[in-house]
Amino acid sequence: MTVEQDAVCPLHRPSVPEYVGYAHMDRLHELVQPRTDSPREVVFLLVSHVKELMFRVAYVELDQARTQMRADRIDQACLALDRAAQSLRVLVQTWDLLASMSPDEFLVFRHILGQASGTQSFMYRTLEFSLGNKDPRMVSAAEDQLALYPQLRQELAARTVYDEALGLLSRQGLDIPAPVLHRDSSAQYRPDPAVELAWRAAYEDPARWPGVHRIAEQLMEVAFRFSHWRASHLLVVERMLGDKPGTGGTSGVSWLREINEHRFFPELWSVRTSL
């Protein structure tokens, strides 16, 4: 066998390392295809991919928390909620990487984005739906995606993380109104004074309601980290673009300021005032 023959013989071809083959790392890196020569565009694409994957990590953990709460397994639910909060911390840190980009560096390739926007991520919408943000405006904006992505459509109809938490509270003996327990889960959640009273009971007597108190604090950590993510998004966009209109048809900073006012699990926030 000649050297040339040996070089192409299947038995002698180098194999893909197990790590690369198992996780398809080569394919992952092939997905980064910048359209300009700017190294900042490469970083932007890489960070965008990281964010997208972390949306899914957070969703997986929240879905697990929801399943565990449905089965009244409080310890396991709290572990899953804690992992979800940890994934949201990683998401917040991705904004630090983008914040290091100066506005002139971003403008080199911003025009390439056209009408593309992170708000068009179906996994991000799936994550928000699972947490309970089913604002009609968001649902309307996702109408085309609902037909494309069955998971998103299923999540719109599914009981939310908060729905399952309130169901758990009721089974633990706290008073949650029937209309709240049996509400239309495809609709936006509306705060209820009785739900705030239930959370207040757990905070005022944690020795009596230790499991509910733990769930409350873990849910609050998730809500806090998500709000931190939104606030960081606002600041980075303002730092890089000022008051320019955003991509994807949004009004930019003013739109981000508006959504920054939204809070998941609203009674867990309002109960802080009444305690």
UniProtKB/TrEMBL annotation:
Pathway the protein takes part in: Amino-acid degradation; L-tryptophan degradation via kynurenine pathway; L-kynurenine from L-tryptophan: step 1/2
Lineage: superkingdom: Bacteria
GO molecular function, one term: metal ion binding
EC number assigned by the record: 1.13.11.11
Binding site for substrate: R110, T247
UniProt catalytic activity: L-tryptophan + O2 = N-formyl-L-kynurenine
Keywords, in A-Z order: Dioxygenase, Heme, Iron, Metal-binding, Oxidoreductase, Tryptophan catabolism
Any Pfam family the entry gives: Trp_dioxygenase
Keyword Zinc-finger recorded: no
Note on how the cofactor is bound: Binds 1 heme group per subunit.
InterPro entries in the cross-refs: Trp/Indoleamine_2_3_dOase-like, Trp_2_3_dOase
GO BP terms, alphabetized: L-tryptophan catabolic process to acetyl-CoA; L-tryptophan catabolic process to kynurenine
Alphabetical list of Gene3D superfamilies matching this protein: 1.20.58.480
Required cofactor(s): heme
Residues binding heme, per UniProt: H233
HAMAP family: T23O
Purpose: Heme-dependent dioxygenase that catalyzes the oxidative cleavage of the L-tryptophan (L-Trp) pyrrole ring and converts L-tryptophan to N-formyl-L-kynurenine. Catalyzes the oxidative cleavage of the indole moiety.
Entry similarity comment: Belongs to the tryptophan 2,3-dioxygenase family.
Self-association and partners: Homotetramer.
Protein name: Tryptophan 2,3-dioxygenase
